[in-house]
Amino acid sequence: MPVRSSDAPDGRAQRESRLAGRDIGVKRSVTVTVGAIASKILAVEMTIRGHTTSASAERAIRVYLNDRKSPGPGWAYPSFLRGRKPVDGVEVHLDLDSDLWQALSQEAVSQEVTAQQLLEHAVLYFAAEDNAGRVTERILEDIEED
Q1: pLDDT at 134 over 60
Q2: Number of domains making up the chain
Q3: What is the span of the domain harbouring residue 59?
């Protein structure tokens, strides 16, 4: 899918567009255990935005993988968490695009973690990125009001 570099100043829209076409395809059912915080993030996405847990997880994975070419702080899986299991783990059943799950699994191998660990990290990363965007919007609104 061709994308012009002028689509977004930070390139995010461009990166999201590259994987957006993967929405259509074979789904893969996976059951993973994520920590309580990641589980709540997925639940909030469902409540606030009306996205299914699977759609929210796919969105988080896409944002995470699209940022790998220009990783910022917090992108890589933290080395001190490699041996840990999810805190207050919650089992979640997801139907994910199989190509997207495969891409996440390959990235997990390169970071020497499991796909389950990287999925949880991607959800947390996505929430932080999403929150940062909202904070930026609020700051800009405050500046405009002054």
Answers
A1: no
A2: 1
A3: 5-145
